[in-house]
Specification:
It is found in: Cell membrane. This protein is an all-alpha fold and 316 residues long. Helix content is 77%, strand content 3%. The termini are far apart.
Length: 316
């Protein structure tokens, strides 16, 4: 009877708390990693905040494209804030304890912001399609009201999927180890801790991934197929170059984001090493949000000019 009681208490403890291993396998680099990730996090916050600021105050940037870019920057700030402060705290304290509900909340918000980014990137592709393939009616169709509605849909429409996915995973029995070999509560490492057959759960993950990741990606591919076809029909080489330049930044971001997200969420319980899984996750949770502002500013003359204007105002 006493042994059963101890077993019951042990199971309850496991259910109430997880331990994120993070980068505990390389303890000698804790302070180095903390310094690197802190600089990266502050850089992401600063760069995206600057983009939000210039797209709000510069009159030349009051267009649908920059409205969506400002929203993407805000989404990026939310996206990295779900994982990076927690990761920094764990590196600082060298403790990875996270409660069951905090882990569920982290997964919920991470999936929410990640899924919303998928849809917002699709909206941005549609915006470029309308601007290049239907320029005469572009501003009429893509008015401010429509832009706000598209952004709102990008945020709200993911909630049913994300709530269902999070509840489904955290309703599974976790009767074994409570150690998550990752730096945040993501689907693949948490699913590995579940007891029994998780085939149905993995299938649901695939279905939702198709709905939120692959369908938007296919819509982006179709949009860019039509965009490229329209650009190639332009007689002016200068016009073709200008049209391509307005799309290139977005296309690079799409390839990076969708590529790594697809690799991460189609592996699940595969033979892929946990170290490789962490590396892929670092790529799309840390590196890509760092690169996005750089890609959009360096390859966009309007943003560059707006930044120079802002810098001049500050210095004078």
């Amino acid at each position: 009877m006493e042994n059963r009681l101890k077993t019951g208490i042990s199971n309850i403890t496991t259910l109430m708390e997880f331990v994120l291993l993070g980068f505990s396998d390389i303890p000698n680099l804790h302070w180095t990693l903390f310094g690197i990730f802190l600089v990266i996090y502050l850089t992401i916050l600063m760069c995206n905040s600057i983009i939000i600021l210039v797209t709000r105050i510069d009159s030349a940037l009051q267009t649908p494209m920059y409205f969506f870019l400002g929203n993407l920057s805000f989404l990026e700030i939310c996206y990295v804030t779900v994982t990076m402060p927690r990761m920094l705290m764990d590196l600082l304290t060298q403790k990875g304890n996270i409660s069951f509900f905090a882990c569920a909340a982290q997964m919920f918000f991470f999936l929410t912001f990640g899924s919303s980014e998928c849809l917002l990137l699709t909206v941005m592709a549609y915006d470029r399609y309308m601007a290049i393939c239907n320029p005469l009616q572009y501003l009429l169709i893509m008015n401010h009201k429509v832009c706000v509605q598209l952004v709102t849909v990008s945020w709200i429409s993911v909630f049913p999927f994300v709530i269902g996915q999070t509840c489904q995973i955290f309703s599974l029995p976790f009767c074994g180890s409570n150690t998550i070999n990752h730096f945040f509560c993501d689907i693949p490492p948490v699913l590995k801790l579940a007891c029994g057959d998780t085939l149905v759960n993995e299938f649901v993950v695939y279905v939702i991934a198709v709905a939120i990741v692959m369908v938007p990606f296919l819509l982006i591919v179709v949009s860019y197929g039509k965009i490229i076809s329209s650009i190639l029909k332009l007689s002016s080489a200068k016009g073709r170059a200008k049209a391509f330049s307005t799309c290139s930044s977005h296309l690079i971001v799409v390839v990076l984001f969708y590529g790594t997200a697809t690799i991460n969420y189609t592996q699940l319980k595969s033979n892929q090493s946990e170290g490789v899984g962490k590396l892929i996750s670092l790529f799309f949770t840390v590196l890509i949000p760092t690169l996005n502002p750089i890609i959009y500013t360096l390859r966009n003359k309007d943003i560059t000019v707006a930044l120079r204007k802002l810098l001049t105002k500050i210095l004078i």
